[in-house]
């Protein structure tokens, strides 16, 4: 019988995808039987986008896989720890709250200096200095809020990097060749 199947080859943490379609090799005398050989009609090489140490080869030659199955995974421990640190920073309001508290202190100092100036107990220079410190403190709040937004973007960036540290089957298929081994270093420049 003729079968359409996808074939994958894993080479040094890279995959070669082969999509097969049947080609008739010879027809037997019996009209109900057709001998055929299937050949891939499409091949694609899928490689790691990140360098790293191969932690897991989750498939074997000849194994059938479904779209989305993990085929190869790099060691992600360091990158996972980095992601967790970035998430802590992105989800923490400590820096923003500290900047807001400092701005509140600067506002109180400015108000106090203005009141003292009205009673001729503070100079114009003291009031201006307090005003500049207040403006700087208000700006620091905005900077801290911006840094928190940047930290959230870094979380997304790191998550994308982690997602690229594994190769998943893009379609249903069959593993044809495996050349990657646990402990080897993947090279993104080699398919």
Explain what the structure shows:
Helix content is 42%, strand content 30%. It has helices spanning 77-91, 94-118, 124-163; strands at residues 5-10, 14-27, 34-47, 52-57, 64-65, 70-74, 166-168, 173-178, 185-186. Helix 1 runs antiparallel to helix 3 (124-163) and helix 2 (94-118) runs antiparallel to helix 3. It is rod-shaped, with a radius of gyration of 31 Å. The chain is of the alpha+beta class and 191 residues long. The chain has three helices and nine strands; from the N terminus they run E-E-E-E-E-E-H-H-H-E-E-E. Strand 1 and strand 2 form a beta hairpin. The longest helix has 40 residues, at 124-163. Residues 1-28 have low confidence and may be disordered. It starts with a strand and ends in a 5-residue tail after the last strand. The strands form two sheets. Strands 3-2-1-8-5 form a five-stranded mixed beta sheet, with no helix packed on it. The chain has a four-stranded antiparallel beta sheet with strand order 7-6-4-9, with no helix packed on it.
């Amino acid at each position: 019988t003729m079968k359409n199947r996808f074939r994958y080859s894993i080479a040094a943490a890279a995959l070669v995808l082969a999509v097969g379609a049947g080609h008739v090799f010879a027809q037997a005398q019996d009209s109900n039987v057709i001998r055929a050989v299937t050949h891939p009609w499409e091949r694609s090489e899928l490689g790691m986008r990140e360098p790293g140490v191969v932690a897991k080869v989750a498939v074997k030659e000849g194994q059938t896989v479904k779209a989305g199955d993990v085929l190869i995974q790099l060691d992600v421990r360091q990158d996972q720890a980095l992601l967790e640190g970035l998430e802590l920073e992105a989800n923490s309001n400590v820096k923003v709250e500290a900047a807001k508290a400092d701005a509140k202190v600067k506002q109180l100092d400015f108000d106090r200096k203005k009141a003292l100036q009205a009673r001729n107990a503070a100079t114009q220079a003291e009031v201006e200095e307090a005003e500049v410190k207040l403006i700087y403190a208000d700006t620091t709040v905005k900077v801290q809020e911006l840094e928190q937004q940047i930290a959230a973007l870094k979380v997304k960036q790191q998550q994308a990097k982690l997602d690229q540290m594994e190769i998943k089957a893009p379609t249903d298929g069959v593993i044809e060749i495996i050349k990657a081994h646990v402990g080897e270093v993947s090279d993104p420049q080699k398919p």
